[in-house]
Write a structure and sequence with these properties.
Number of domains: 2
Number of strands: 16
Radius of gyration: 26 Å
CATH topology of the largest domain: BirA Bifunctional Protein, domain 2
Helix content: 25-40%
Largest sheet: 8 strands, mixed
Strand content: 25-35%
CATH architecture of the largest domain: 2-Layer Sandwich
Shape: elongated
Strand order of the largest sheet: 6-10-11-16-15-14-13-12
Order of helices and strands: HEEEHEEHHHEEEEHEEHHHEHHEEEHHEH
Structural class: alpha+beta
Bound molecules: 4-amino-1,4-dioxobutan-2-aminium adenosine-5'-monophosphate, magnesium ion
Number of helices: 14
CATH class of the largest domain: Alpha Beta
CATH superfamily of the largest domain: Bira Bifunctional Protein, Domain 2
């Protein structure tokens, strides 16, 4: 089936083509129907003239409202007045699926567009987002394949909290309390003992009560775990992966990026190595910028934005105070910091990766777990077994695919990085 993109590239000049697609814009003027057609690859202007096409076809063309599905046969001709520089002069027109009163018009409210998300997915913006996302995911997979990582498929039904109780979705699993997974990390840790280097892409769920432009309650979580790697080596892996994908998207999605408002040149600057600073250094920088911060304060959106002011590539913030990070992170020599890193994206897109070297000290992990009320240590027995039988130094990380896509495409809100966004007040459609 010929694609509009190929017609716009001049591959069918002067030859009849049959295009399948949806009506993007529609106007009848006397004996001519001007119909802009869209398919997955682009948009092109078509004209349908009374007397040139059979009368029945002309009637169908008049009836083909916005978003009707149609098949247009015609000859592409160069036309500098047409958007994209080409016009298809129709010789036949078939209305396949009518579209009376398509509910989305221009300048609709955000709420309406979210209610009609199943239809709004047809917009140029979301089409471009989904195309870039597919290329980005292909890039992640390719990088892991080329670098000796095994793809694995952990369960998203779990009885362990990986990232603390406050954001857990709890449900009844045949009479037993279970959770939707916040992270596949602990299962990936079990898999390194047979596969050394593993990764997975699973949905993670967080009952995020805050409404921000960076949080979803369900997100695509790309996670990796590596045996025999410390937290520094873990960062080497992350920066190579992220740079690889930024370069690939810049190369392969130029048109989409430009339409979305991102200069591909911005992404071409995302090369290794990424800067690495410690939490203490970050704190110092923030204080110099006028933030009143105590040691042990976590960073919020204003802090992340300030730290990344003027940055062209992501930056790691390493060695965080132990008390504000998860129980499984390895303590450094002082016992006050953990051997972890958050990777911050430029332009205020915030934390795109959280990673760490994993603790091998069961007693310290238990102690830190028990700081949270209602912790059921028995649920972690299997996890502690991993430290009992042939434990190895290991590290891993989790990357939020929608956060990365939002940054790559310069999106205003993370919800546009996923087709059916889930947030505190929305699970429909
Ligand atoms: O930093 P987090 O919580 O780390 C973990 O879950 C680790 N267990 C991962 C691991 O080491 N295997 O989450 C990892 C990343 C964040 O950096 C962020 O990009 C993304 O997941 N993320 C979210 N993305 C969208 N909406 C949310 N509510 C998110 N919460 C985390
Ligand atoms: Mg984190």
């Amino acid at each position: 089936m010929p694609l509009i993109r190929d017609v716009l590239a001049g591959k069918h000049e002067g030859q009849p083509v049959q295009l399948h697609g949806w009506v993007y814009r529609h106007r009848t003027s006397g004996g001519i129907v001007f119909c802009t057609l869209r398919d997955s690859s682009g948009v092109i202007q078509c004209t349908v003239k009374k007397g040139v096409v059979p009368d029945a076809d002309f009637e169908q063309a008049k009836e083909a409202n916005n978003e009707a599905s149609v098949i247009i046969t015609g000859t592409p001709a160069k036309d500098p007045r047409a958007p994209g520089g080409w016009e298809v002069k129709s010789s036949a027109f078939q209305l396949v699926g009518k579209s009376p009163d398509f509910p989305i018009q221009e300048n609709q409210s955000t709420e309406l567009l979210l209610d009609k998300r199943h239809l709004w997915l047809r917009s140029r913006k979301l089409t471009n987002m989904m195309r870039v996302k597919a290329v980005m995911l292909r890039g992640f997979r390719a990088w892991f394949d080329e670098n000796g990582f095994w793809e694995t498929t952990p369960s998203v039904i779990t009885t362990n909290a990986c990232e603390g109780g406050s954001t857990l979705f709890t449900f009844d699993y045949f009479g037993q309390k279970a959770f939707l997974s916040q992270s596949a990390q602990m299962y990936l840790e079990a898999l390194i003992f047979s596969l050394d280097k593993v990764w997975c892409l699973t949905p993670s769920f967080r009952a995020e009560k805050s409404r921000t432009t960076k949080h979803l309650t369900e997100f695509g979580h790309l996670e990796a775990e590596e045996a025999w790697v410390d937290y520094q080596g873990n960062m080497d892996i992350q920066e190579q992966l992220v740079a690889h994908v930024a370069q690939k998207v810049a190369r392969e999605c130029e048109a989409e990026l430009v339409e979305l408002g991102r200069e591909p040149a911005d992404l071409r600057k995302v090369t290794t190595p990424f800067p690495r600073i410690t939490y203490d250094e970050a704190l110092e920088r923030l204080r110099k910028k006028g933030f009143d911060m105590k040691h042990g304060d976590d960073f919020g959106q204003p802090h992340e934005r300030a730290l990344m002011e003027g940055a062209e590539k992501p930056m790691f913030v390493t060695l965080w105070p132990e008390e504000i990070k998860a129980f499984y992170m390895a303590l450094d020599g002082s016992g006050k910091y953990v051997r972890c890193a958050d990777l911050l994206a430029p332009e205020g897109y915030g934390e795109i990766i959280g990673g760490s070297e994993r603790s091998q000290d069961v007693e310290s992990m238990k102690r830190r777990l028990m700081r949270e009320p209602d912790t059921d240590l028995a649920a972690y027995e299997w996890y502690f077994d991993l430290r009992k039988y042939g434990s190895v130094p290991h590290s891993g990380f989790g990357l939020g695919t929608e956060r990365v896509l939002a940054w790559l495409t310069k999106a205003e809100h993370i919800r546009d990085a996923t087709p059916f966004p889930r947030s505190i007040n929305r699970a429909y459609p």
